[in-house]
Design a protein that fits this description.
Length: 363
């Protein structure tokens, strides 16, 4: 290692811990968002104030104003008529915490990033990646309000489309950070078959698809309507007339409660099967210890996720099981990123030195 590299290693280590901290904050925000949805708290703040909204009501008058604003939307009249101020405060704090955490993430990303830029510690390629991630984070704030706005006038909940978009974008940002961390580590490329690489990427893509479908299920409350397993609506495969009664037919894929939950289940079965086959392929092709253990861990956590999904369904989505299901989904996504990146062809280093130990310890 050259003298320059040795001098820059502390900076690189700091960058690694910074990105790990931001990824952890995003994971926490996803879980707080899940709790906000499950407690029906997401519409308790009916205005978007990016700056002044960082402070909660500080006196009785401000609390009364916030409560009166909530009373103007359909959710209050149709679901919470007669709610007391104390009950309103409960749902308010969930939504406020979710929004505040979003602001904290923005500051936690931007300020250290600017400091590293000022120190000259970030190479050109890495700098472009990190600016892109920051831009997606800024977009996420706007998407969050776009989601909330869908429930303020003619609905008692937010649009399932916008909910799914909000969740997937958050996890895309999370994935971008995790992938960048993995790429910063100085590890030799894995020598594996093209088939194994393709299935690892397929598992990552399907994980995002499944998360999107899960958000649609949550937005439609489909888990509380069809809560039997392995049958659904009285059969393992419901009748086509029930699955596709809306016109045009493709709307059923997003709006039909039965169809959305059915496709969520079918994708889950497919992901589980593909994960098991990925393990078998890794072992048979002697892909190496890291690739095999990565495949095994991914399949194991997908199995746990499937079990939690079934238990959540059968118990009609209690908050503890539902949040556990969401937390393990983040774990599945993380392991899928690890495996896909581990097996992916490596390009030349991104104008960076080794992020020694820091990143390799988590991989």
């Amino acid at each position: 290692m050259t003298g320059i590299a040795r001098q820059q290693t502390p900076n690189n280590r700091a960058i690694g811990w910074w990105l790990i901290a931001v990824a952890a904050l995003i994971a926490a925000m996803v879980l707080v968002g899940g709790a906000t949805r499950l407690t029906e708290s997401g519409l308790s703040i009916v205005e978007w104030k990016p700056v002044s909204g960082a402070l909660p009501p500080l006196n009785q008058e401000q609390w009364t104003q916030a409560f009166e604003a909530y009373k103007t939307i359909p959710q209050y009249h149709e679901l919470n008529a007669g709610m007391t101020l104390a009950e309103f405060k409960t749902i308010f704090w969930w939504e406020f915490s979710h929004r505040l955490l979003g602001r904290v993430i923005g500051v936690a990303f931007l300020l250290p990033f600017l400091w590293f830029l000022w120190r000259g510690a970030v190479g050109a390629d890495l700098r472009r990646r990190l600016w892109l991630i920051f831009g997606l984070g800024a977009l996420q704030g706007a998407v969050g309000w776009w989601m909330v706005a869908s429930g303020l006038s003619q609905r008692v909940e937010v649009s399932q489309y916008r909910l799914a978009t909000h969740l997937v974008l958050a996890l895309m940002i999370f994935a971008g950070i995790v992938w960048t961390l993995r790429r910063l580590a100085d590890r030799p490329p894995a020598v594996t078959s093209s088939r194994l690489k393709i299935t690892s990427v397929a598992l990552l893509v399907l994980t995002f698809v499944q998360i999107y479908l899960g958000a649609l299920v949550a937005g439609l409350r489909a888990g509380r309507i069809y809560n039997t397993w392995p049958d659904i609506d009285g059969a393992f495969i419901p009748s086509a007339a029930r699955l596709f009664f809306e016109a045009p037919w493709w709307r059923n894929l997003f709006d039909n409660t039965l169809t959305v939950q059915f496709e969520h289940r079918m994708v889950a079965y497919f992901v589980f099967t593909l994960a098991v086959l990925h393990v078998v392929d890794a072992i048979r092709s002697r892909a190496g210890g890291a690739a095999i253990s990565g495949a095994v861990w991914l399949a194991a956590v997908i199995t746990l996720q499937a079990i939690l999904g079934i238990l959540t369904l059968l118990n009609q989505a209690p908050i503890d099981l539902a949040l556990a299901h969401q937390a393990v989904a983040i774990a599945v996504l993380t392991l899928a990123i690890f495996q896909a990146e581990r097996l992916a062809a490596r390009r030349p280093q991104m104008g960076r030195q080794e992020l020694v130990r820091t990143v390799t310890q988590i991989g």
